[in-house]
TrEMBL record:
The keyword Hydrolase does not apply. It comes from Brytella acorum. Residues 1-25 form the signal peptide. InterPro entries: Lipid/polyisoprenoid-bd_YceI, TTHA0802/YceI-like_sf. Pfam families: YceI. This is YceI family protein. Keywords: Signal. Residues 38-202 form the Lipid/polyisoprenoid-binding YceI-like domain. It comes from the Bacteria. The keyword Signal applies.
């Protein structure tokens, strides 16, 4: 992963946000106050994290990045909202370069044959002021199955750095990788895969 030091002005803005400056006051934390419209995934701050139980010893973590897609957000009728995302499988990254290459191989995700995973929402069920259950079709490794995510709204407002209206969510869920034909080392490496997703979206138009 690449890390870039913030310039002094940018760092000052970031510190101000954390300290509760006027800029942070513009962020709303009630989903009903979000601006409706069409949003694009902001890939720089969107991550699809996953973890598996490795031989019963550790919950081993990895992440996919460079996500793209759109969110059609209807604040007045949230159940009408739609989400479509594409995840490049070759973006998979762990703390081991050797394992990264292995995961891209045909023993695991087979990124050459199946370069993308996709998720297309089919329903949104509101469960609380800032919470929803989103069901959709997940396509991975050439297999499509209906999966469910618990989604929590975090906040929305104008990004103090790039001045773009941004909204963010966290999603969690569990899938079985064998359902998608990714069976290597099951059960020594758990079949259950825990997902934790940070989703950032920028309003278009």
């Amino acid at each position: 992963m690449k890390y870039t030091l913030l310039s002094f002005p940018a760092a000052a803005v970031a510190i101000g946000l954390l300290a509760g400056s006027p800029a942070s006051a513009q962020v709303v934390t009630n989903a009903a106050q979000v601006q409706s419209g069409t949003y694009d995934v902001e890939p720089g701050h969107t991550q699809v994290g996953f973890s598996v139980l490795h031989f019963g010893f550790t919950n081993y973590l990895g992440v996919f990045s460079n996500v793209s897609g759109t969110l059609s957000l209807d604040a007045k009728s949230p159940a009408s909202s739609k989400l479509s995302v594409t995840i490049p499988v070759s973006s998979v990254q762990t703390t081991s370069a050797k394992l990264d290459d292995e995961l891209k191989s045909d023993q695991w995700f087979d990124a050459t044959k199946f370069p993308n995973a996709t998720f297309e929402s089919t329903s949104v069920r509101i469960t609380g002021r800032n919470d929803a259950i989103v069901t959709g079709n997940l396509t991975l490794h050439g297999v499509t199955k209906s999966e469910t995510l618990k989604v929590h709204f975090i906040g929305a407002g104008v990004n103090a750095l790039d001045k773009k209206y941004t909204t963010g969510f966290e999603a969690t869920g569990t899938i079985k990788r064998s359902d998608f034909g990714v069976k290597m080392y099951v059960p020594y490496v758990s079949d259950d895969v825990q997902l934790r997703i940070a989703g950032a979206f920028e309003k278009q138009g």
